Every structure is written in structure tokens, then in C-alpha cells.
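Can't paste images in this forum, so I'm doing it all in text. The chain is below; anyone willing to post the predicted C-alpha cells underneath?
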Amino acid sequence: MAKQALIVVDIQNDYFPSGKWPLVGVETAADNAARLIQAFRDSGQQVVHIRHEFTSDSAPFFTPGSSGAQLHAKVTNRADEPVVLKHFVNSFRETELEAILDQHGIEQLVVVGSMSHMCIDGVTRAAADLGYDVTVIHDACATRDLEFNGVVVPAAQVHAAFMSSLGFAYASVVSTDEFLAGSR
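Text version of the structure:
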């Protein structure tokens, strides 16, 4: 059986209601991510946390050293779980993520976190391109309303479009309950 790891992407304080960049459905997504973290811990499988910080204090959120850039309490890492600091959308870019996965012989990735249309999309596509078998847990991811050319796209539609796209060619896309029941 191939070794898998749970990748917990950017579940950070600024994405929650009191933060600088709140997401729609972030509480439910974080609760589902916490369930998956516990399941991976219980089965002795690898959990890797990703934490995004921009490099400038003028960033709209995740400013360097801020409390908003810290992992949210619902998904805090244990001492034996690495936290990968990134500065780009793609969690593999200029980080040690791939080296950590290789060190543990990981072949399958389970991805949860924020934002569906940015960092979840970025890490999933990159992981598939690197040869990992990827599963995205759609109800453990969150996003926000977007605007393009004067049109507001509701978060639910943004999320659905990205999950559909990832499910077409890059990953299996399932719910938390489906994954925990063994349907991947």
C-alpha cells in the first residue's frame, strides 16, 4: 500500500471571521480538516502543515510575524508534524515540501485547506505534475466571493468550479465522510 500524507494548506487566522481576509465556510472546512488530521494521527500517517506568509508588511493579509499569519487553533501542528513556510501560491515553490514527502516515502497526498481557487488549486496541480496521486477533500476547503469584470462570483460557485476542474484531471475529489469511510 502506498504511503500517504495529509497536506493542511493555509488554515490560518486571517481567513477566519475576525481576520483580515475571511472566507466563506471556513469554520466548517476547518472542522472537517481537524477530523482528517485526527484520523491521520490515529493511524500513524504523516501530517504536513503549510503556512503562508507574504514577504511585505503591506500585504493585505498574512503579514510577516502577525497573529493572522499563524495556524488556526483548530489545526495546530504537533511537535512531530512539520510546518512548511511558503511565500508563493504553490506550496512546492522554494520550500522543503517535496524533500519532506520524499524523506517519508510519500506517494499519495490528501489536500485540505484554503483558498480553493488559489493555494489548493496550486498545490494540487503541482503535486499531480510531480507524480503524486492526489485526493482533495472538497468540504475541508474554503474560498471567498470573487469579482471579475464587474461580475461577482459567489464563493460556492468559485469552489464548485475549482473542485470540478481539479477532479477532471488532477485529483480525486471527495467529501470528508467519503474519505474517512474509505471511498477514495
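Helices lie at 26-42, 97-103, 116-129, 155-169, 176-180. The chain has a mean pLDDT of 97.
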